[in-house]
Amino acid sequence: SSGINAEWPLRPGMALRLATRVCNRQLLACSRALSLYYTSSHEWVSVEGSKCKVGITDYAQSALGDVVYVQLPEVGEEFEKEDEIAAVESVKAVGEIMAPVGGIVTAINSVLESEPATINTHPESDAWMIEMDINDTADLDGLMDKGAYETFLASDDH
Known about the structure:
globular, 5 helices, 3-stranded antiparallel sheet, alpha+beta
């Protein structure tokens, strides 16, 4: 015998079990590759590999009210964690946006310059403000996941 199982291609359910294992591994890899974190100053950071996008949370946009102006940094600017990276002006107040991680700005969401109200309608998706290369992933330590952020919002500490 050559050691090859001639029945393998014919076994019922084998292909389905194999496909399920592959899909589960891919889903696990994707969930590790794309992570979402929050700060106590109500910024969110979506991390994919060594890049991230930064924006403000729904809670922050609600507290600000109708956003009328967004000031974004220049591509190529470098920031340390907790530096002011942007500003959002609303009919109520001006909010400083702090860098949740240190890094170099690789892109800005220029839509926000002409349509700042996007922050009110889609704060945690289409209204990302900047994309940056992360200098040190250790900066992610101490940031909150969604559950911890929701607990933080429910407390009196925010």
